[in-house]
Amino acid sequence: MEAEEKGKKTALSLTLGQFRFETQERLAKEKDFGGVLKKGNSLRAHPFRIHYLKKEQGPSRLAVSIAKKDYKKAVERNGLKRRVREFFRRNKNRFAHPHDLIVRVAAFDWSANAGKFDALLEKLFKEAGIWKP
């Protein structure tokens, strides 16, 4: 009986599953990355720059780029990447169409502006017309 319970998917687990950051949502191939940079559009609101390219089908995909010269410590770069991915994961249901996205983060004093992280990203996504109105 325990084996049956382990195999069952509850409504909660199915709901939570749609908010995961899946492997197919990662923009990883060099060819795809280059395509977004060459063919796509970009917007900037310091410290973020987003490059985006509308897709016909499939899930929206994300890549995060943070320069080592701007953030020397890996723990800082990894923390920022984690925050961007988390923002994407929580808001992926707001996309009007599937997009490939590259988010670049420049040097910025986050200690003085910690609360602005999500607001700045949200502003860029709205300006780009990526999100549903």
Q: What does the model show?
A:
By secondary structure, the chain is of the alpha+beta class. It has one domain: Ribosomal Protein S5, domain 2, CATH 3.30.230. It is 40% helix and 19% strand. The chain has helices spanning 2-7, 11-17, 30-39, 74-91, 117-128; strands at residues 41-45, 48-54, 61-66, 99-105. It has a 4-stranded mixed β-sheet, with helices on both faces. The longest helix has 18 residues, at 74-91. The model has no long low-confidence stretch (mean pLDDT 85).
Q: How are the strands ordered across the major sheet?
A: 1-2-4-3
- Structural class by helix and strand composition: alpha+beta
Order of helices and strands: HHHEEEHEH
* Amino-to-carboxy terminus distance: 48 Å
Helix content: 25-40%
Q: Which segments are poorly predicted (pLDDT under 50) over 5 or more consecutive residues? A: none
Radius of gyration: 17 Å
Number of strands: 4
Q: Per DSSP, what share of the residues sits in E-state strands of 2 or more residues? A: 15-25%
CATH class category name: Alpha Beta
Number of helices: 5
